[in-house]
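Two proteins follow. First one:
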Amino acid sequence: MTALPAQRVEMIPVDRITVVNPRIRNKRSFKEIVDNIAQLGLKRPITVTRRIEADGPFYDLVCGQGRLEAYRMLGQPEVPALVVAADPEDCLVASLVENCARRQHRAIDLLYDIRGMQERGYASAEIARKTGLSMEYVHGVARLIENGEQRLLRSVESGIIPVSVAVEIAEAEDHEVQFALSRAYERGLLKGRKLLAAKKLIETRRRRGKGLATVGPRARERVSADTLVKAYQEETDRKRSLIRRTEITRGRLLIVTEAMRRLARDEAFMGILQDENLATIPDNIASRLRGGAGS
């Protein structure tokens, strides 16, 4: 990147700054940023680049989205910023690199960030150099992204499965996945709890697919009292219906049992059965027939 740092910090109107690579923030982490800035102030300025337009100047954010959004949340009209000279492509790449370099980031971040750099023509070697990630890691993540393997990506980021094993699983046929796990175990790449977690992940991937299910707004709604009452009533009705069917079935079985018991006392009928070699019956049925009428 050919950006040149500014000599001093400038106060920039927050409504003139555009976020070129917006991220979805964790609400708890963002609240901590807001509270920290409200109590202690901004420790590190954001970085922007200037765009000269008719009613400008305007600015593109290079890094510091969380700090910028915190200032907006606090109602501050201006934010301290370092202004650098860079073209839009350099700004976007710098923003992607910052996201990749976070201490804790999710597989979905890699999905957007590394993929974004790939779509702009950067080779795996260039991405590895800019982000500080290994060539094997970037190349493996790229292949997982191409296959839509979001579950495997998340397992790689959480340290459950090495990226090389994840790629092998992603490219294996269903009947070959267990062999991939066996090979990983033999090479010492998966052992103990990680092996068990990997097996569980593979089963979840088989049942639910490669992608991560998103929770829609309706699924996150709080359950109301009316909903709980309705669910309770439906479950009560279901169990009452089950009890009724059970009683009907029990009554029919008693009738059949009594009918067979009476036939067993009929010598002529038993003689016919013996002649046809049908006189024997299973022991559990015979014991029930020998029992009382209420058995």
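Second one, unrelated to the first:
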Amino acid sequence: MEWFEVVSTYAPSSTEGLSAYDSFRMWADHNRVWIIFVQLILVYYMGFATRVRMPILKTILLYVLLFIGALIFGILDVQLPVKSALLVAIAILVIVKVRIKPEGSSRK
């Protein structure tokens, strides 16, 4: 996203030889908005979507609004742990989905 550059928060300790961790952190800083966008999609579908199928225009509008939210969260991610918070939300939603599945089948 060349038109929307977010300030990088990671500075590697040595610039001559980057380790795999340094390369990953620099890549994650460069693609911050796209990572947050994917995480927002996962949180929406695991926590809020009641139907998997929506009309195409509603789906497009949903993705546009999620991308706008990802841009805002990308700006906030410079000072706040937005990506980490979304990872925790995804982990909690996965745990809830796994725990609810066996209970729902045993009641029938």
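SUMMARY FIELD: The longest helix spans residues 82-107. The chain has a mean pLDDT of 83.
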